Structures are given as C-alpha cells and as structure tokens.
Automatic annotation (TrEMBL):
InterPro entries: 4FE4S_WBL, Whib. Acts as a transcriptional regulator. Probably redox-responsive. The apo- but not holo-form probably binds DNA. One of its GO terms (molecular function) is protein-disulfide reductase [NAD(P)H] activity. Keywords: 4Fe-4S, Cytoplasm, Disulfide bond, DNA-binding, Iron, Iron-sulfur, Metal-binding, Transcription, Transcription regulation. Residues 19-82 form the 4Fe-4S Wbl-type domain. Belongs to the WhiB family. Its cofactor is [4Fe-4S] cluster. GO terms for biological process: cell redox homeostasis; negative regulation of DNA-templated transcription. GO terms for cellular component: cytoplasm. The keyword Membrane does not apply. This is Transcriptional regulator WhiB.
Length: 90
C-alpha cells in the first residue's frame, strides 16, 4: 500500500466500528423522501449513534470536513448546518 493510501485507511479506521455499517440507507435521505419519513429516519439513526463507540471521532470528522449530507456523529444535516452558522440547503 502506498503511503498516501495508508494515510487514508488510517484516517478512516474509526469508521470500521460504526454502528451504521450495516444500515447506511438509514443515515441518508433520498431527495424524494417525505418530510415525515426523513424525521423518522434521522431519529432512528441518531439512536444508533448514541450507542456507537466512535461517535466522537465521527462527529469531529463530520464537523471538521463540513459533511453536508446525512446523520454523522449523532447530528443531523440541519444540526451541523446550524453549528456552522449556515442555512440548511437540503
Ligand atoms: S456515530 Fe453514527 S454515523 Fe458515526 S459511525 Fe457511529 S453510527 Fe455511524
């Protein structure tokens, strides 16, 4: 493995332990998901995050890298946008 590739693998090592690994669709909304379904998916995803052993690393990644979409580290898109002082676009 090249050094750059090794750095990428190391940078994402925490993700191996995420509770979302087997249910990635729960963590992202489709464009045509109705608002009620979006809210229910976000609530269910956040419950999984609460039990996740890498929630701190995940949240730090999402906030630090300005992840725009999905639930990361127990935070919804809207919550991360508010934290960053941005208006929600999606
Ligand atoms: S905190 Fe949530 S989004 Fe992050 S790895 Fe864990 S389950 Fe997945």
């Amino acid at each position: 493995m090249t050094t750059a590739a090794a750095r990428i693998v190391e940078r994402w090592a925490w993700a191996e332990y995420g509770r979302c690994r087997d249910v990635p669709d729960l963590f992202y909304n489709a464009d045509d998901d109705p608002k009620g379904l979006r809210r229910r998916k976000e609530a269910a995803a956040k419950k999984l995050c609460e039990q996740c052993p890498v929630i701190q690393q995940c949240r730090a990644h999402a906030v630090g890298n300005r992840e725009l979409y999905g639930v990361w580290g127990g935070m919804t898109e809207a919550e991360r946008h508010r934290l960053a002082g941005r208006a929600r676009t999606g």
